[in-house]
């Protein structure tokens, strides 16, 4: 195998997603500990917004600084180069998470054993399932009382639409938590108070009938475990790697991230089964990682924290070929040639300048305003990667200029913040008024603050009552014209000039759908 092919084959780029507080940060940190990327717990600060600080945007600004460092955490484990892409836990930043999910090849979903499937988990898994991203489930906090394992698996199947395949099984839980039986490796790991916080050695059990197990976990638990494992084999499908890779089944592990328990099993299985970088579609053709020509796309843009330097860091996922420092690449949307003298690689929470990077890797590129989320960079061919859709925002407000002398600054600021993906901009067709749509109300404060501090512009907001933004697709020009005439005051263009219907209620949306049956109303911008 050539060096490049070897490098591609050993890369695993994934994201950890969860509802806030399920244990994503703790698990990330424990994975980094196993990978030897950090020496002690607490070394990785999460980019989540601290509890109780939901309306405090200064806290968000602070976290914005931290989140550059934790955006990508790379480490080596068992000969593989593993890249964890961090996703913000706060639901107001869900859009950021959706975009990051376009750059991962697989995900681990963390679920709190007591809370089960929570709303944010549902949304995120839905986004993963749209692309058939392979998913491993980690059920966390087994050291606490929680839901019965079978009930929880039912809930996961029902609410997340996943077909699960347990690869480990808990023995008791909460105060009675004895450990997990690792179905994947056929061994038993005991959870004892003494071993808390330490990495326990797995006990090899040759056969479940081994009477040593009765002594280790107690007769009753041993009996239960035998019965439950027998049941599992009957109820759930056998693990098949291809089924996992196609997104058809999801292996499940149980453990306690805080106690470092069950995490090693998860990681060992992950390195065995998780996919290397995958081919990706462009509007023109499919791109294969082992192709000679370099290609990649921008999935995240981070503004500089220092308002005096308006440069930004664009995060590029490499899809094919190799990315080299000081080499000319084509920015296909602008048709411009660009080269980068200081591309950044990320290892754990450290950054360094990189000379060469391979498919699966993420590099940070200093940007003075050339990039927009979704942009493609190639070795010359005019390609555009697909798959970074915008979703309908939840909140809508008119944005007004509060300082007439600073109109230019305001427009530039709004433009750049939208390129960064902070929120979405819609321009009403009837009067050109600008509406900002966001996932969370918090973003309005962030935008106002950043416009003032980074662009010297002032804005005010005015309520705009809309229920959902729908992107309109039409097969019938005549019907489209009729729709545009009748619904004129609810129609806008997004920043790419696509037609958007800002429905004011679910009722009016349904009426419109009925009346204009040759139009399709999409809740996302790519279809
Ligand atoms: P998140 O990134 O998904 O939002 O969750 P995070 O890891 O921050 O974990 C949320 C809380 O759950 C933290 O407690 C964390 O210590 C706790 N936790 C994580 N894994 C486990 C586990 O296996 N067992 C138990 N019992 N708790 C767990 P916190 O009190 O909110 O924060 P902290 O003071 O511990 O940092």
Distance, first to last CA: 38 Å
Q: What is the number of independent domains?
A: 3
Query: Mind telling me the CATH class of the largest domain?
Result: Alpha Beta
Helix content: 25-40%
The CATH superfamily of the largest domain turns out to be P-loop containing nucleotide triphosphate hydrolases
Given helix and strand content, the structural type is alpha+beta
What's the β-strand tally?
A: 31
Sequence stretches where pLDDT stays below 50 over 5 or more residues:
46-55
CATH architecture of the largest domain: 3-Layer(aba) Sandwich
Beta-strand content: 25-35%
Alpha plus pi helix count: 14
Strand order of the largest sheet: 27-24-26-25-29-30-28-31
The distinct ligands, each listed once, are: guanosine-5',3'-tetraphosphate
What form results from the Cα inertia axes?
A: globular
Keywords, separated by commas or semicolons:
7-stranded mixed sheet, 8-stranded antiparallel sheet, 31 strands, 527 residues, Rossmann fold, alpha+beta, 28% helix, Alpha-Beta Plaits
What does this structure look like?
- The two termini are 38 Å apart.
- 28% of the residues lie in helices and 28% in strands.
- With 527 residues, the protein is of the alpha+beta class.
- It has 14 helices and 31 strands.
- The chain has three domains: 14-273, Rossmann fold (3-Layer(aba) Sandwich); 280-378, P-loop containing nucleotide triphosphate hydrolases (Rossmann fold, 3-Layer(aba) Sandwich), CATH 3.40.50; 395-522, Peptide chain release factor 3, domain III (Alpha-Beta Plaits).
- Guanosine-5',3'-tetraphosphate binds at residues 18, 20-26, 46, 48, 89, 140-141, 143-144, 256-259.
- Residues 18, 20-26, 46, 48, 89, 140-141, 143-144, 256-259 line the site of guanosine-5',3'-tetraphosphate (G4P).
């Amino acid at each position: 195998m050539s060096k490049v092919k070897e490098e591609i084959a050993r890369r695993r780029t994934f994201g950890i997603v969860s509802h806030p507080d399920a244990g994503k940060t703790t698990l990330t940190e424990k994975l980094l500990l196993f990978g030897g990327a950090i020496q002690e717990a607490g070394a990785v600060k999460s980019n989540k917004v601290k509890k109780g600080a939901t309306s405090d945007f200064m806290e968000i600004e602070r976290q914005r600084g931290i989140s550059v460092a934790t955006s990508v955490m790379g480490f080596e484990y068992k000969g593989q180069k593993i890249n964890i892409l961090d996703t913000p836990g706060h639901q107001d930043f869900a859009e950021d998470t959706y975009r990051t999910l376009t750059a991962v090849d697989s995900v681990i979903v963390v679920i709190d054993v007591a809370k089960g499937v929570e709303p944010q988990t549902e949304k995120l898994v839905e986004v993963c399932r749209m692309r058939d991203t392979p998913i491993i489930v980690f059920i966390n906090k087994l050291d606490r009382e929680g839901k019965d394992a079978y009930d929880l698996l039912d809930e996961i199947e029902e609410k997340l639409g996943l077909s699960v395949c347990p690869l480990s099984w808990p023995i008791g839980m909460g105060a009675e938590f004895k450990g997990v039986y690792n179905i994947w490796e056929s061994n038993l790991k005991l959870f004892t108070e003494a071993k808390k916080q330490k990495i326990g050695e797995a006990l090899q059990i040759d056969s479940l009938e081994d009477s040593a197990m009765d002594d280790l976990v107690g007769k009753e638990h041993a009996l239960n475990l035998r019965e439950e494992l027998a049941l599992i084999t009957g109820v759930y499908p056998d693990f098949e790697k291809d089924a996992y890779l196609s997104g058809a089944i999801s292996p499940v592990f149980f453990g306690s991230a805080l106690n470092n328990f069950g995490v090693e099993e998860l990681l060992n299985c992950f390195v065995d089964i998780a996919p290397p970088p995958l081919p990706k579609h462009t509007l023109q053709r499919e791109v294969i990682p082992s192709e000679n020509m370099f290609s990649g796309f921008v999935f995240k843009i981070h503004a500089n924290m220092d308002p005096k330097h308006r440069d930004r860091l664009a995060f590029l996922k490499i899809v094919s070929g190799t990315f080299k420092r000081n080499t000319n690449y084509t920015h296909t949307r602008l048709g411009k040639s660009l080269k980068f003298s200081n591309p950044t690689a990320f290892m754990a929470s450290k950054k360094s300048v990189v000379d060469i990077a391979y498919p699966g890797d993420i590099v940070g590129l200093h940007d003075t305003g050339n990039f927009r989320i979704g942009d493609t960079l190639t070795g010359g061919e005019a390609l555009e990667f697909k798959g970074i859709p915008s979703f309908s925002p939840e909140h809508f407000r008119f944005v007004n200029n509060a300082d007439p002398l600073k109109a230019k600054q305001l427009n530039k600021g709004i433009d750049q913040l939208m390129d960064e993906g902070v929120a979405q901009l819609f321009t009403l067709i009837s009067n050109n008024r600008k509406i900002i749509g966001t996932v969370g109300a918090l973003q309005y404060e962030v935008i106002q603050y950043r416009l003032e501090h980074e662009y010297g512009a002032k804005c005010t907001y005015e309520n705009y009552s809309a229920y959902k933004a729908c992107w309109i697709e039409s097969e019938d020009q005549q019907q489209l014209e009729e729709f545009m005439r009748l619904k004129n005051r609810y129609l806008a263009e997004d920043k790419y000039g696509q037609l958007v219907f800002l429905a004011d209620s679910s009722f009016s949306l349904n009426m419109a759908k009925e009346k204009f049956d040759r139009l399709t109303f999409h809740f996302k911008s790519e279809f």
